[in-house]
Amino acid sequence: MRYLPVVGLFALLLLDLLVGGGSVSLVTGAILWKLRVPRVMTAVIAGGALAASGAQMQAVFRNPLADPHIMGVSGGAGLGAAIATMALGTSAAFFTGFTVAVAAFLGAFVAAALVVAVSARFRSVTTLLVFGVMLGFIFSALSSVLQYTAGEESLKLFYSWMAGSFSGCRYFEVALMAGALVIGLILAFCNGKGLDIILFGEEYATLSGASTRRILFLSMLSACLMTGTVTAFCGPLGFVGIVAPHLARRITGSSVHRQVLPCSLATGATLALAADILANLWPIPLPVGSTLALIGIPLILLILLHRNTSNVKD
User: Fold this and answer.
1) Whole-angstrom distance, CA of residue 168 vs CA of residue 209
2) 83 Cβ contact list (under 8 Å, min separation 6)
3) Measured between alpha carbons, how far is residue 180 from residues 109, 112, 124, 264 in Å?
4) Long-range contacts of range 153-157, CB-CB < 8 Å, 24 or more positions apart?
5) Which DSSP letter does residue 34 get?
6) Of the candidates 225, 235, 227, 248, which has an alpha carbon nearest to the alpha carbon of residue 293?
7) Is pLDDT larger for residue 274 or for residue 118?
8) Which residue has the higher pLDDT, 202 or 177?
9) Per-residue pLDDT reduced to its tens digit, 261-304
10) Residues 27-81: pLDDT tens digits?
């Protein structure tokens, strides 16, 4: 059972390499190495990063539905993308995917810096949660203002980014996301015992001698770094960060984060690959954000129904 995510990950990874434009017999080395391999690597890294971020958010906020985007990082990325596509004029020179990704990353970085700064100042999880949600609302409102005044081409590019995709990333962008994932995971594992302790509440963590401020700071830094980088290049992708940690805890039969985090990583990557395969089965590829929702929402409902059924039996 514990090896199921790893087996599923490798099976879907190989399957995803076979999916895309053109038949399998027509796939050349150039198509495979320049298009499909970077796309599959992006899916694996993005799914793993969002899942690891979600595991930390659910522990810190002690909320099973906490999402890595809850801290306003995706809102900041959206505002950055909106500025790049709508406030820089109609020059075609600005309308490139990399320009949008850089602007989205800067927006996510600003949001992450604000969240990390607040987490270093306050110990209250509730205060941090409210700050993150309000920050997201502010960024979304500003993005809406820009959308209202934007032209047709600008809106088309912005909505293309918002829809989400694992395609279009080159090895340079893949390397950036991989670097963010490695740093984020190092921070998460260093903070593993703190995440285990804070599951019992802030008062318990304080009485046990743990620094809740340090736990919050490290978890926010890790999650914001991984979520911000992935969102910049892939768009705001939901549901992986919610579903994957739940599946990881069920598979491992534990809430200890030294077990949950690696399993979440594999489970999140598997979900992202499944969504990418579903998106690329058609003549015109579907948005990955939509296919993730089609996979993630039923899984969330099954988890909630199973939990309610267990509570009734008890």
Assistant:
1) 47
2) 103, 107, 146
3) 12, 13, 27, 17
4) 153/90, 153/95, 154/85, 154/86, 154/90, 155/85, 155/86, 157/85, 157/95, 157/100
5) I
6) 235
7) 274
8) 177
9) 999 999 999 999 999 999 998 888 899 999 999 999 998 888 87
10) 567 778 888 999 999 999 999 999 999 999 999 888 887 888 888 888 999 898 8
Q: Return the number of other C-beta atoms located less than 10 Å from residue 169's C-beta.
A: 24
CA atoms within 13 A on the CB side of 98: 8
Q: What is d(CA 302, CA 304) in angstroms, rounded to the nearest whole number?
A: 5
Residue 112 or 166, more confident: 166
State how far the Cα of 14 lies from the Cα of 172, in Å rounded to an integer.
22
Cα dihedral sign for 179, 162, 119, 124? Answer: negative
Measured over the CA atoms of residue 126, residue 128, residue 130 and residue 132, the dihedral's sign is negative
Q: Provide the percentage of residues in the chain whose pLDDT is more than 90.
A: 43
- Which one, of 24, 57, 27, lies nearest residue 216 by Cα? 57
Q: What does pTM read for this prediction?
A: 0.89
